[in-house]
């Protein structure tokens, strides 16, 4: 049933276009918690609980966060049109030179930096407009969009539509800039209010409202998806950021955007929330399976090292642990990790290559880099 005006209304502006003025949260009338929403919510709660539990039982949970964050960063950035893959990002971070690497890899690396900054600042700041500005500035530093007021709320009208379209041809025109501060202030108040709604519902509403407000000149989609991760961690739903929700959003990109628009046009919050809850449930289930596969891989490779590395076993296991947060390494990394001489480190690297734990990826005679492929490949070809 359509509820036109429930989420806000389109208002004619002096320059002849219509901009959308969102109503404050929570929605009025309230969310209809029908059977589909309750079922999807129950599945999502159970799945995300299992994910959190599976990560907490790992010997060193922080060791396994590294790749989850990078997968989310790559996928969220790809939704916005970047071409860089997970391997591109890992190679860039490892300073592997490649003339074929997309130029937008720095945008993904900035996303990783913005997420890590946001998570660290959560210790002293709640999820708030202030925190959102901080991570937005980090997201756009020295990359495309750096000239579009990083860390500052927009002071001009923006719009959403096909490339090259004008304001009058836009698919959606967010609220005028003078509306943005109050709209964000309400969003912040809603997040920290005593409103009796399940946390997942609140987070789903917050993401959609943020995308509607579109408070920055660039980076709104990525910041809106970062907001989801920060809220999951702030509320203790996840102890660590291991949910790559952008995987589902990218896979169903058209539906993702259509449902956000349907909120504005028809007041249909419920269809969006069902989609969001299903996304949380499905991606949580997949991420839990990935955690299980990581543990199994780690044990298999520990056993191989114990069996095959002889007197190098202890150092071999040190390197193996290091690979889970640095899956592309060189011989000098082994020197640093183990304290061994360069010759001993080089011999240890040869053992890793001989037993197919690592593969050389540069083709160089010097400055060679090696990839821990079985681990990276657990996160898919993205």
UniProtKB/TrEMBL annotation:
Q: Which residues cross the membrane?
A: none
Active-site residue numbers: 214
Q: Where is the Fido domain?
A: 127-278
Question: Cross-referenced InterPro entries, in alphabetical order?
Answer: Fic/DOC_N, Fido, Fido-like_dom_sf, Fido_containing, SoFic-like
The stretch of residues making up the signal peptide is: none
Positions with a binding annotation for ATP:
80, 214, 218-225, 256-257
What keywords are assigned to this protein?
A: ATP-binding, Nucleotide-binding
Q: By its UniProt entry, which Pfam families does this protein fall under?
A: Fic, Fic_N
What is the name listed in the Swiss-Prot or TrEMBL entry for this protein?
Putative Fic family protein
């Amino acid at each position: 049933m359509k509820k036109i005006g429930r989420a806000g209304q389109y208002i004619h502006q002096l320059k002849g276009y219509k901009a959308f003025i969102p109503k404050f949260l929570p929605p009025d009338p309230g969310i209809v918690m029908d059977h589909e929403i309750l079922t999807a919510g129950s599945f999502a709660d159970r799945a995300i609980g299992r994910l959190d539990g599976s990560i907490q039982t790992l010997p060193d949970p922080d060791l396994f966060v590294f790749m989850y964050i990078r997968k989310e960063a790559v996928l969220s950035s790809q939704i916005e049109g970047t071409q860089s893959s997970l391997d591109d990002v890992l190679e860039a971070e490892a300073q592997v030179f490649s003339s074929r690497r997309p130029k937008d890899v720095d945008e993904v690396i900035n996303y990783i930096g913005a997420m890590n900054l946001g998570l660290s600042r959560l210790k002293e700041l709640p999820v708030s407009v202030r925190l959102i500005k901080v991570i937005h500035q980090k997201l756009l530093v020295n990359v495309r969009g750096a000239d579009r007021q990083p860390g500052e709320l927009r002071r001009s009208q923006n719009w959403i539509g096909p490339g090259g379209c004008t304001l009058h041809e836009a698919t959606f025109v967010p609220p005028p800039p003078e509306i943005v501060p109050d709209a964000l202030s309400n969003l912040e108040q809603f997040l920290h209010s005593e409103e009796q709604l399940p946390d997942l519902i609140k987070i789903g509403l917050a993401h959609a409202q943020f995308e509607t407000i579109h408070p920055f000149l660039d980076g709104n989609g990525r910041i809106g998806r970062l907001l989801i991760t920060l809220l999951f961690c702030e509320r203790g739903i996840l102890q660590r950021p291991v949910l790559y929700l952008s995987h589902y959003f990218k896979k169903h990109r058209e539906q993702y955007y259509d449902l956000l628009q349907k909120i504005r046009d028809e007041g249909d919050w419920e269809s969006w929330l069902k989609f969001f809850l299903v996304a949380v449930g499905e991606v949580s289930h997949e991420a839990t399976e990935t955690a299980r596969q990581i543990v199994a891989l780690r044990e298999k490779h520990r056993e191989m090292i114990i069996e095959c590395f002889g007197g190098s076993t202890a150092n071999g296991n040190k390197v193996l642990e290091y690979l889970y947060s640095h899956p592309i390494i060189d011989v000098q990394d082994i020197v640093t990790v183990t304290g061994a001489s360069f010759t001993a480190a080089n011999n240890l690297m040869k053992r890793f290559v001989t037993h197919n734990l690592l593969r050389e990826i540069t083709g160089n005679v010097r400055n060679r880099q090696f990839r821990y492929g079985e681990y990276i490949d657990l996160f898919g070809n993205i």
